[in-house]
Amino acid sequence: MSEQKKSGPGPELGGRSKSLAAPYAAGLFSMGQAELLTFLVPLWAVLQGASPAEIGLLVGAKSLLTFFLAIHGGAMMDRLGTRRVMLFFTAMTGCLAALYPFLPWLPLMVVMQMMIGFASNMTWIGAQTIIAQVTGGDPAKIGRFSFFSRIGNVAAPIIMGLLWDFAGPTIAFFGVACWSSCMFLAVSRVDNPQAASTLIGKVSFADILPKLSDYTGSLKLVLIPAVAFTLAISFTRHATNAAENSFLIVYMRELGFSGTLIGAMFSVAEALNGIGSLFVGRFSNRWPIPWLMIGFTGASILLLAVTPLLGGIFILLALSQCLRRMSEGLVQPLMFSLQARAAPRNLQGAIVGLRVTNNRLASIVTPILMGLIVQTFGIDTGFFVTGAILLCGLACLGIAVARSGLAKA
What we know:
Helices cover 79% and strands 0% of the residues. It is mostly helical.
């Protein structure tokens, strides 16, 4: 542990708030960008007449390339510089978003989803890597990073809902491109030396190719108990989000709620998510962190699973979503902090890539599975069955934690 503490940022950073301003802004725009795409694609798919299984396929396709290349992307940031890699993928995301409304054919939509999903996820990996490099895993500072990141999630659904209802899908996708431009500017302002390249001179083609050593080195991190635990929690958490992203928006749209109203609900929920992250330090001082993560993740799953029991009443749906997001707001900074402290500084990008690979597996499997369940049994059963599966998995994780004594560490 002593080596990890020494590897954290020292007093030489001086004006910490100034050096954190650009990383906070990068987190805001990268997290908001993911929310923009998550919000628009299901609505666009419904407009094209896609079936539930096809919607699940589209949502799952967004994570496919990221699943295979996230570890490589994180390692590439460690090697080439986080800022440089983020700028490239930010520009790529904006360009792809502008093309999306002109390619409504399902096979092309799947390909676009894979490409834009990979590019946008690389920007979020970069934002997480930068904040880990700068703070050394400080829970309070990472909690504030999560709070600022959620500001993007608050603004994004409202903006997209308004653009969708009043300007149409094409302008809404152009709005994603404009958002990416703002993120490009924020990333370009990151001046921390740790975000710069470790290579001198031009980058060769070999430098950007995947390396087996990147993958083996990242996978070895799973042997660290804190890393293995957070990966399991993160998988369950993202499986819940994938189920929500696939069908909660569609479910509410079928109930007759407007895009603006749905967007407003998600914005309020994301605001509470950010507020929840500010209380991480207080909660972690009173209860064991593993049980906090398990408890709040379980609450998040349960609140999503009971959606069909709320009678289609908007107030109840909104309250459930707000409580769910607040629970998640407490879990996320704890994951970031535990993993940042567990990994050496020169592997911060690699460990973020490993976690994102794990998350993308959940994001690939869950929408496709839930899409098949919904198409076979109906959307109500889809929520119930998916929730039951995730809660059973979380219960098994709780038993493992109790037997291992991790909560006492």
